[in-house]
Specification:
about 140 residues, mainly alpha, 3 helices, ATP_synth_b/b'su_bac/chlpt, membrane
Length: about 140
């Protein structure tokens, strides 16, 4: 084991004249390593920054589209509520009209005997005849 450790230690002491070796001087190798690492980060980091800005753009577009969809849904909801209110109002009007008509018919039928009924019909026929003469 000592031989293995000695061989690594001796790698740091190889002469650098025209041969490949390890530089164990930390102060000399740190700026080189940092510049290589920074160069790699900048080279590959450009894509990440572009991808991040694309994500931000898509997020803004998605928020805008969602806001527009919510606004449309709110408008549809309001239109539907207005339509349903008008339908309910018309339905109530129709029911009130039918009840009033039934009440009036009931009152007329209970008040009119056959003689009064005949006189009312004759009077209305007379009025219609007078209207026809005026229009001719």
């Amino acid at each position: 084991m000592k031989n293995l450790t000695d061989s690594f230690v001796s790698l740091g002491h190889w002469p650098s004249a025209g041969s490949f070796g390890f530089n164990t001087d930390i102060l000399a190798t740190n700026p080189i390593n940092l510049s290589v690492v920074l160069g790699v980060l900048i080279f590959f980091g450009k894509g990440v920054c572009a991808s991040y800005s694309e994500i931000e753009r898509e997020k803004v577009n998605l928020i805008n589209a969602t806001s527009y969809s919510l606004e449309q849904l709110e408008n549809y909801k309001n239109e539907t509520l207005h339509f349903e209110q008008q339908r309910a109002i018309n339905q109530v009007r129709q029911q009130v009209f039918q009840q009033a008509l039934q009440g009036a018919l009931g009152t007329l039928n209970s008040c009119l005997n056959s003689e009064l009924h005949f006189r009312t019909i004759s009077a209305n026929i007379g009025i219609l005849g007078a209207v026809e003469e005026i229009t001719d």
